[in-house]
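Q: How would the structure tokens look for this protein?
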Amino acid sequence: MKNIGGAMLTGSIMAGTGFSLNARAAAAASPKTDTTASSAVEVDRIAADPTAIPGPIRRNTPKTHEIELVSREVISEIEDGVQFHYLTFGGQVPGPFIRVRQGDTVILTHKSAPENVLLHNVDFHSVYGTGGGAEATFVTPGQSQTIKFKAMYPGAYIYHCAVPRMDYHISSGMYGMMLVEPEEGLPEVDHEFYFGQNEIYSQQLAGEKGMHEFNFEDMRKETPQYVLLNGEKQAITANRRGALKVKKGEKARIFFVNGGPNLSSSFHPIGNVWTKTWREGAIASNPERFVQTALVPPGSCGIFEMDFPVASTVHLVDHALSRVANKGMMGDIIVEGPEDPEIFDPNYSA
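A: Here is the predicted structure in token form.
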């Protein structure tokens, strides 16, 4: 069994057990179950590592993948001392980065961890088929369901839970990205990073210590207490899990998925620009050049490339800046290397 970006690639796949919505699962679909969660932290880190993704595809022929995607309900921290009952794929936010090539076949098993309470499924925006596979992947705790599909069109596509209260499930962390590389592959870069944005709606104020219970009324009004990059407040900064590091002169490709469920992201690199931008993850299209801020709607993705000509710290933010100042939406990339005063001189004197 091989783990690629949190998704389990296996030599054999458990057969689906058949779907039946029993009384326990029906009760579990009610949002009221969230308020009964224990305050014990079960997962030390919920934030997906932006570097832990499968590498670029370097083959010229189609392949069949066998992938297991596990729904897990876990308690972790949004920030120090603030617990939340996350709903996840693979115990991380965003869910595992799945990478295939146009023309590949995927045999995907969706499994619900036996300790779960709620009903889950998966809608893949990269799949031709009813509900993007959602109708065929419903699972109750301990169950699994398997589907088979061909990756027909290239691009970066969200996948997410799509049960009747899908907004609650997505807000709580149930979204991720599937990248379908074009047949010719992607140009070589020095780094690839994976980020996801979502809102959390809480009955407690942001920063208040203790267990935060889900706030369905605030979700209805689209007024979240947190807007997060990779599931935690300032997760990919020195204040939390550490900033990413690159070297001057390198190039990075950034895959970005906006789970939402409600707010569009004005994705912006402070102190830099997107050298190339493929909006909506539409990698088969010609990229836009030198884009300052890219709008990424909820339920969509973006692919971005960025050059690093000077030593600096690049802040990745949503340019709806109250989300940065008050709600936790920021990540950092530190560019290491010598200064270049011809491009930028922070100590200039006439």
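The two ends are 63 Å apart (CA to CA).

Residues 23-28 form the longest helix (6 residues).

Upvote if useful.
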